[in-house]
Amino acid sequence: MISRSLLSYANRKMIILEGPVGRERKRFMKSNSPLDFGAAPPMDCYPVLLDGSRLIVEACVRAGANVYVGYPITPANLIFSYASRRFPIALPAPDEITALQWMAGLSAAGYLPVTATSFPGFALMVESINMAYMMELPMLIVLVQRLGPSTGTATAGAQGDLLLLDGLISGGYPLPVLCISDLEDCWLLPALALRTAVELRAPVVLLSSKEMVMTQASFDLSQLPEIEPVRRVFYPGLGPYRSYDPGDGLVPPFLPVGNDHHIVRLNASTHDRSGLLQHTSEEAMANTRRLGEKVEALTPVLYHLDEQEGARTLVVSYDITSGAAREAVRMLRAQGIPVSLLLARTLLPIPAIYYEVIDRYPRVVIAEENAQGQFARLLFGRRIPSKIRLVGAVGRMVRPEEIVQEVLAP
Amino acid sequence: MSVFLIHPELPFCKGCGHHHVVRSTVKALEAIGVKPTDVILVTDIGCHGIVDAHFATHTVHGLHGRSVALAAGIAMGIPPGKKVIVYIGDGGATIGLQHILEAARMNIDLTVVVHNNMLYGMTGGQPSSLTPRGFRTAITPQGTSLPHHDLCRLVYEAGAPYVARVLGVGDFSEILRQALETDGFALVEVLELCTSYGLKWNPGLRLKALAEEAGYALGVWTRPPSPVFRLRVGKEGSLRPRGEGLLDLPPVAVRFSSPLEGRWTLILSGSAGEGIQQAAEILARAAMATGLHATKKGSYPVTVGVGFSTAEVILSRSPISYHGVHEPDAVIITSMDGLQNQEDRIRRMRRGVLWIDASLPVPETGAEIQIRDFRGRVGARHAALYAIWTVLQEMGILPPAALREAVQESPLADRVPMEIFASHG
Ligand code: SF4
What we know:
The complex is a heterodimer of chains A (410) and B (425).
Chain A: E1 2-9, E2 13-17, E3 47-51, H1 52-63, E4 67-70, H2 77-86, E5 89-92, H3 96-108, E6 113-117, H4 119-135, E7 139-145, H5 162-166, E8 177-179, H6 183-200, E9 203-209, H7 210-214, E10 216-220, E11 265-267, H8 282-298, E12 300-307, E13 313-317, H9 321-334, E14 340-344, E15 346-348, H10 352-359, E16 363-368, H11 374-380, E17 388-392, H12 400-408
Helix pairs in contact in A: 1-2, 1-6, 3-4, 9-12
Chain B: H1 18-32, E1 39-43, E2 58-61, H2 67-77, E3 83-89, H3 90-95, H4 97-106, E4 111-116, H5 151-157, E5 162-167, H6 173-181, E6 186-191, H7 198-201, H8 207-214, E7 219-222, E8 263-271, H9 276-288, E9 293-299, E10 308-316, E11 330-333, H10 336-348, E12 353-357, E13 368-372, H11 374-378, H12 383-395, H13 400-408
Parallel strand pairs in B: 1-2, 1-3, 3-4, 4-6, 5-6, 8-11, 11-12, 12-13
Antiparallel strand pairs in B: 5-7, 8-10, 9-10
Helix pairs in contact in B: 1-6, 2-4, 9-13
The structure holds iron/sulfur cluster.
The site of iron/sulfur cluster (SF4) has 11 residues of chain B, from loops.
């Protein structure tokens, strides 16, 4: 059996990890990071009962996020409430449009802001996320999915917003979307998402869902690896500074608006490298194209792949259904049936490797908590190949037995 | 030419009031003696918004109507002494009124200049909420029928320390200077006429006469200074997390053992306010104290204080990757709210045990039925914990002492009479 988890930065570095969490297991209790837990004695085991929201907030803070802007919405309220006690600064916004606009202003001023919401609030944020994308402002939006359409059922989980995220940026430009598949991801992915936001100068969405962030579970804190704070590097040059000049790379160096050294121009409309309004000049269109190119090239490719020799079926899942997929694979293997597992952590832009893995199997079962098979549609459009089997559910979690049944079906 | 301007030729139609706004702004900035890098000009969508390229300051060109919220984010985060100016039109002020009122209420250190030419100039001349009654526009050729908002009054009432309305002709830099020197939120509404659309639909109209007829009071309204909303940033911009991180979560030491080999799932359902969620959490901790893995989920209606409250608990020897509960091993019902919430599930049960309070009707079910007097023996407040105690004792899943200690370590320690764990019904 080959069991591995991959964490790679496309075209840059590829780190092969052991186990589901990965990174060297530096015990966080012994961490000497400036944000240390304090004088607590090192312990081999620190079992607590906690929920994913708590880990997400702590991971954000340790990664260097410094402002949380919140507007109440179920099921993201726990994140708001923990953030209000833990973030260096937490602000209650009067609505979700304001929340995103404040975040954009704060990001422009050099802060690293985070918010969490669910579809109804996220819908209000969409224009402002496009603005942050165009202005190239780093920020993190945690989208906790709940049952729709519209206000749906606030306290029921779902995986219904993936396709919305695929077309979110007008013009079809890709938005980096990472997705949490278990509690360890609640610790690891916020930091990676924030790093991506800073390194790409872009808003990043961390996708999750109600049961993932609200369920309490026994969890051993001592197994968590340390989180490296995201390093902010501001343009150090002598100028003239051009806000959207990427030099030889794809991402222009950042400089906070209002700094004493160089004027900064940010622009939500089509603009040139200086940040000045343009109609459709060549320079401006190249700049707009670059926004998509940087996301395609630099978004980290994160997934969990557990391939078993002799397996003829691959189970694919993401977000909350990852747990059922893991359980289904365990049940099948216990019966002596070989089966492989792919859990997607990077959802957008779609990593090419997902197609490569899927191509290796005569049967692929994609499981997710919606009726349409959104991930399958994301991969294949409306014409889903016959070897792909879909397992879905609405208003409840997908059950491991349902995945097993589809793997074994004739 | 001023240090604040790059191009002296402004991009507006001849006679447009926007020229006067820019020139007065520049003069005011010169008067207060700041540098171009001290100024952040945030522009909205509208003709005024194409002025960025002419300013030698920081410039931020945002979305329609959202510039005040965007600028608020900047202004609350940067050190005092910088000047954040918002250029917005009457259309932007209409769609973004909430942002303006909110920034005024919070007293964010901004100067908002509203270019009120009483219509949407960039899109062909449609009426806004600041268009006065009778004013003719492209889509209201007979004149608008509704009165306009008194923006200055709204903003003043929201708490702004400096509000002014001026005619957008000549030099009004002194007003802008006062606004810029205000510690906190200032708004200046500049009345203008769009020479392209305003005059086209209202030929011969004079700005001064229009302002008088429409009842636009000119003037300055101020309040005594009040605290400015700024982020509390430490020395040298340091921002430290608050609180203890994860260490305020009480660790659960393993000091008991459980005979459970596989997985045991429980639904506990009763009424809000009767400690259902806390009881389930205590059960999860008690199980952890025996080395088991545990998950706990809550579900309740949006009105947290009334109606049902249901908890799902899974205890397992091996790690729990899937925490859904389809066919529970046990269902505990302590009240009518809980019964109603779980009735469908109970009717579907083909196995497992239903533990139900003696006061309730027993639905048809394939589960084994155990009727107990939970509420009668210990009262509604403790019925859930007592029911868990009873079930654990009879099923032998956890040692009784594990639950008792978990209660003692919980926030309920002082409130639960420990005698309830002495016996069971
Ligand atoms: S269209 Fe109207 S508002 Fe726009 S620049 Fe011309 S006169 Fe001014």
